[in-house]
């Protein structure tokens, strides 16, 4: 079979060696004669899996010791409620930087719990979508925290600035975590649904500074309570053990690649190859300003949108999967998470070139 | 390798043929060249998986058309909050039948949202733990619903009665769903964490009567809102796709066994074999009254508790895994979910007999 390259935005492809290992030990894990998903989360072998996954993630992101790492359920959507319910305390508002679809979705949910101060950070420069500099964001004095989404999966926008504030910064890093270096100590809370750069759908990582654990609303369901989860080491309820195990394998794979420093270099090269090709072509276009182009999600459009269907069909035949853009944006989207090798991006560009030659 | 029988209370063993199929198609599912966990939940192939799983569950439990089936995250623990937040409406109380550990855990969480009317249904008859008849439960007039847990995984107690009420009956069926026939039309809400009789940990089934969808609290996180999940066909957030797929395979396996009617017969036989052996022995005991013995979770104690460690060690050597009792009860516990074949129970009894002969 020809190489398959899966550009799905999420649930996304996982590293091939991880999937191969998981398959080989699927039924007989650790010589137990059973699967890792069939044992108690409180058994010694699973506790070891859980602890190693946490430690590997701590190593990869240099997470300071005053931060807790939680393995949760409900995805980032659950965090849209969990963040205000955990962090507002007696405050009535929080700042929400609006950079696209997911930032807006977080606001919609936050509206239940407070009056979010929504700061529109989107602007057009030279006909391209861009994000205003953080120094221009009108933060409020009485915000409990400042929320933003550094990578907008649908829009293909990446925010490289950090809010300029001494309030806790809360970041939805679902589609950017582990793709580039970050300084965790600058954040109050980082959360990320796993199904892009971590593991399968069904697990969500929360990294929370430990001075923020005592502010929860009395009405917060316990399964979303950072303090409860922290005290119970993410085992207040039965955790999604198989997703946790797979995430752990991904962390080990990433360490073997040289960690975040090395994967960031590869990700930058992947971005240069794809954006570089798009920019020199008049057949394809990307409408995001170079300052804010996402390294993880690259939406692009054909100059002849009537060819979208043919493009997708021929791409699929070449083993280039899941390139259809989100319905909110249209066109195509190539997601280039850590598990996508440079060869996959090169194969995409080769195909785009052939398609352009045949149809320009 | 000798046969392994895994008596884990949860995450529990899944049917062997399911695990074998899942392993064989782990990396190349449906000839896509990729795993089912690596494709979009909104892709046609996954939507088919999702719809088939729902239909198979509807067939297995004869779920009436006026009930919605939701595939959620957060386990039954999440439902401990979701139930009151979805169902209280303007009511201030709900009845909670107390039959053991999990019923009590549901009360603890419900306390955040209402003043639960807790009805202690536990009683001792002839030195054995039993449950009072439902006709004796003092239900309140102003309850929004009546909550109970028909099978107490830790205590090994099964409640065969239904509350006598015209209020919505809410049942935590985590460890009993699909093990015996039920009449869904008698319930308002049935919920069940998957990791016992359905699939891997990380997915939770909610079956809800559609007239109960309009009572949700404004403060309910959307990911726990039955109406939102129902309108979005359990895809308001990215669902745990791999757990959903595996649950679907379990449903197909169960249908191939003859459905719930047939598996119930096997489960009854399994219970007779194990309880029958315990009852004729003075070396082992079970402290639950025969009327309320769980078919799914059989706790038992040795007359000489100092031999517990030796029992567990030798059992493990024989491939009889995860028999250690919950710390709250002590001794041993054999969980006999659907995936445990009769031969596994027979192997356990054979070992118990040998151990008794050697150590009585």
From TrEMBL, chains A, B:
Signal peptide: none annotated. Its cofactor is pyridoxal 5'-phosphate. CDD domains: PSAT_like. Binds 1 pyridoxal phosphate per subunit. Pyridoxal 5'-phosphate binds at residues 76-77, 102, 153, 172, 195, 237-238. PANTHER family: PHOSPHOSERINE AMINOTRANSFERASE (PTHR43247). This is Phosphoserine aminotransferase. The modification N6-(pyridoxal phosphate)lysine is found at residue 196. Belongs to the class-V pyridoxal-phosphate-dependent aminotransferase family. SerC subfamily.
């Amino acid at each position: 079979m020809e190489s398959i390259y899966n550009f799905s935005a999420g649930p996304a492809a996982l590293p091939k060696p991880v999937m191969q290992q998981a398959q080989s030990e699927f039924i007989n894990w650790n010589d137990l004669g059973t699967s890792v998903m069939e044992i108690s989360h409180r058994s010694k072998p699973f506790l070891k899996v859980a602890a190693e996954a946490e430690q590997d993630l701590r190593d990869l992101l240099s997470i300071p010791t005053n931060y807790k790492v939680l393995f949760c359920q409900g995805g980032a959507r659950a965090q849209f409620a969990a963040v205000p319910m955990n962090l507002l305390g007696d405050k009535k508002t929080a700042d929400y930087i609006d950079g696209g679809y997911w930032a807006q979705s977080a606001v919609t949910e936050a509206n239940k719990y407070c009056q979010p101060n929504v700061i529109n950070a989107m602007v057009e420069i030279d006909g391209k979508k861009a994000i205003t500099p953080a120094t221009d964001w009108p933060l409020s004095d009485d915000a409990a925290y400042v929320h933003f989404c550094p990578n907008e999966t649908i829009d293909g926008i990446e925010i490289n600035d950090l809010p300029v504030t001494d309030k806790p910064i809360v970041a939805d890093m679902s589609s950017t975590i582990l793709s580039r270096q970050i300084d965790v100590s600058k954040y109050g809370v980082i959360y990320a649904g796993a199904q892009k750069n971590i593991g399968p759908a069904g697990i969500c990582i929360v990294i929370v500074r430990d001075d923020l654990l005592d502010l929860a609303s009395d009405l917060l369901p316990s399964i979303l309570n950072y303090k409860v989860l922290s005290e119970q080491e993410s085992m207040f309820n039965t955790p999604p053990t198989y997703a946790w195990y797979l995430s752990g394998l991904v962390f080990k794979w990433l360490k073997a690649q040289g960690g975040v420093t090395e994967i960031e270099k590869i990700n930058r090269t992947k971005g240069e190859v794809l954006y570089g090709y798009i920019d020199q072509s008049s057949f394809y276009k990307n409408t995001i300003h170079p300052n804010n182009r996402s390294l993880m999600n690259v939406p692009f459009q054909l100059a002849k949108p009537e060819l979208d269907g043919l493009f997708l069909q021929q791409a699929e035949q070449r083993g280039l999967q899941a390139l259809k853009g989100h319905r909110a944006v249209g066109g195509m989207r190539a997601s280039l998470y850590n598990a996508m090798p440079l060869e996959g991006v090169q194969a995409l560009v080769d195909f785009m070139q052939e398609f352009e030659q045949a149809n320009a």
